[in-house]
Amino acid sequence: MCNDDGVGAPGLQAMVEALSGLGEIWVVAPDRDRSGTGHAITVHQPVEVRETRLPGAERAFTVQGTPADCVKLAVLELMGQAPDLVAAGINAGSNLGIDVIYSGTVAAAAEGALLRARAIAVSAVTDKSNPRLAAAQAVARFLAEWVLTGGLLPGVFLNVNVPDRALQPLEQLTWTRLGLNRRYRDEYVRLPAQEGRDENGRYLFWLTGDADDGDLHDPSTDAGAVHRGRVSVTPVHLDLTDHQALARWAAAPGTLWLRGFRAAWDARALG
Ligand code: MN
């Protein structure tokens, strides 16, 4: 079990409670909030690990590293084997559409899938300062049981988003696709306000900006489902290959593109 909000996150404790009794629970989590670190791993310095205690967990470790570090360490060293289930979350805040690229929560589940474990990432669409997690707990429990009884293909993990207002969360489960028309209106705020430099002459930029309402009205997307108060369940795999483009280009040997390359190569050899 992992949580990119850090080992002290209420969502981590909520996940432990939600999955209690399903098996032996091991927690391996970053020592602080590592949201937005994506699938980063620590390679330029050693990773520091401390054992700690967490109510409901058989063993618990804090890692001075990223969520992907945590899952890698858990499987390869701390547990010495892949667990029956890698559960990431419950994240305070949604992970919809392109968020899966930036999310540490999703990366933890993705790392699990890469290591051939079954994995789910659960995010609560809720106020981060006062997260309401009960609906997400019910969903996490249900999906964990479903996954543990074989309801998941190898290499595929589930990205789950639960609106906190889902009153009957299990009746609201909806299979969705990632809504990639949901775009961020990214904006850098210069800090401090005085000419954008601090006393040391450094520029300070703070990334802000909300997502737009792209895909909000398409219920087949994760964002659209959540917008309707439904629980979004997206099967995700890490094959980023564009299979349409591959089929189009790879099936046509001797295309103009290839001939152009050969002509350029020949010209170079002659020159
Ligand atoms: Mn997070």
Radius of gyration: 22 Å
SS-derived structural category: alpha/beta
Could you estimate the helical fraction of the residues in percent?
Answer: 25-40%
Low-pLDDT parts are none
Number of strands: 10
Strand content: 15-25%
- Identify the overall geometry: globular
The set of bound ligands, ions and cofactors reads: manganese (II) ion
For the sheet with most strands, the description reads:
5 strands, mixed
- Strand and helix order: HEEEHEHHEHEEEEHEHH
Number of helices: 8
What is the CA–CA distance across the termini? 60 Å
Strand order of the largest sheet: 4-5-6-10-7
Mean pLDDT: 92
Please characterize this protein's 3D structure.
With 271 residues, the protein is α/β, with parallel strands linked by helices. It is 30% helix and 20% strand. The protein contains eight helices and ten strands. It has helices at residues 10-18, 67-78, 99-102, 104-114, 134-148, 222-227, 243-250, 256-270; strands at residues 26-30, 49-52, 59-63, 86-92, 119-125, 157-163, 173-175, 187-191, 204-208, 231-236. Helix 1 packs across helix 5 (134-148) and helix 2 runs parallel beside helix 4 (104-114). The structure holds manganese (II) ion. Residues 4-5, 35, 91, 104-105 line the site of manganese (II) ion. Residues 4-5, 35, 91, 104-105 line the site of manganese (II) ion (MN).
